Amino acid sequence: MEIHWKNEKLRKELEDFNHLKSKYDEKVAKSVVTRLREIGSFPSYADLPLNTRKHSIKDGNKFRYFAVDLPSLGGGRGKWRLIFVPHGEYDPANQTTIVAVEILGIANYHI
């Protein structure tokens, strides 16, 4: 997929491994690098591997946002998610039409 960014500052932060390690644990930092590589390597959202634990996030009555897990130290899914939205034209009923995304950031939306 084609990757776009919410802004240049976010791109620099998420592409800087040392910055990620200083803000999160090392496993989360490695997960961010891996997830960005995976997103950029697959042709569509539908093609992302199941181990990314890709999922939709409901906003009101619509699934507007998407996320992939960022596992952290201690095992399990971790609390951090890489959040993104489809970029450009797509059919909400067909995930293979999501061929570009805009990265919005990392969040723990479970709190």
Quick synopsis:
This protein has 111 residues and is an alpha+beta fold.
Defining key terms:
single chain, 111 residues, alpha+beta, YaeB-like fold, five-stranded mixed sheet, 3 helices, 5 strands, globular
Say which CATH homologous superfamily is assigned. RelE-like
CATH topology annotation: YaeB-like fold
- The CATH C-level class name: Alpha Beta
Strand order of the largest sheet: 1-5-4-3-2
Question: What is the 3D shape?
Answer: globular
Q: What order do the helices and strands follow?
A: EHHHEEEE
Query: Rg from C-alpha positions?
Result: 13 Å
Percent of sequence in beta strands:
25-35%
Q: Are there runs of 5+ residues with pLDDT below 50, and where?
A: none
Which whole number gives the mean pLDDT?
92
CATH architecture: 2-Layer Sandwich
Q: Compute the number of helices.
A: 3
State the distance separating the first and last CA atoms. Answer: 30 Å
Number of domains: 1
Largest sheet: 5 strands, mixed
Helical residues, percent:
25-40%
**Secondary structural class:** alpha+beta
